[in-house]
Amino acid sequence: MSHFPGKVMPPFILTLLLSISSAQAARQTQGWGRVNMQGTIIDTACAITAGSREQVIDMETVPIADIIRDGQGITKPFSIELINCVLTRSNNKLPDWRHFQVTFDGEADGELFGVQGKAKGIALQIADGQGNIATPGKPLPLGDISLRAMQLNYALRLVSNNQSLRAGAYSSAVRFKLDYY
What are the Fimbrial-type adhesion domain coordinates in residue numbering (predicted)? Predict the structure, then answer.
């Protein structure tokens, strides 16, 4: 009988120590967290207003008959507002800014922007204020930078992609970037 307590005691002490260690570790991490951040500093001619960076455009409900009849649905205008434009560069060895170029990118459906969801036979088309049609990943023609605030106007249109139409909800994500020259 004298050997019984000796055989049970070491595992019991080890279990007790592990329980205390994990309880202390949990207490020490309570109230603590971590935030990872990243960013970029760039040399740019203009700033983009906060309201222009992320936009949600409701294309509303469109009857299939409209798309069959017209080949397109409604057109929704949207804009990108540029502010604090400065033509001089921080590096005076480089030429001043004169032009900008916008590139829209997203899921491609030929030369149109593809959509996700139950709806089929449709895609999105983006045109600038001069009527230039955006192709996913390809820059639109150069525009001139103005010293004052600038509003770049575009139109988003639901169009037929010449496939069988099917009713349903759809969505799409389109990114844009501005390059300055």
Answer: 36-180
Structure tokens at 146: 């103005």
Phi, psi for residue 82 in degrees, rounded to 5: -105, 135
Distance CA 4, CA 1 (A): 5
Is the pTM above the cut of 0.90? no
> Quick check: 6 pLDDT over 60?
no
The residue length of the chain stands at 181
Q: Which of 150, 153, 145, 105 is nearest to 127 (CA)?
A: 153
CB 156 within 8 A of CB 72: no
- Backbone torsions φ then ψ of 146, nearest 5 degrees: -105, 145
DSSP, collapsed to helix, strand or coil, labels residue 144 as strand
For tokens 């010293």, name the residue: 147
pLDDT digits (tens, 9 = 90+) for 102-129: 999 999 999 999 999 999 999 999 999 9
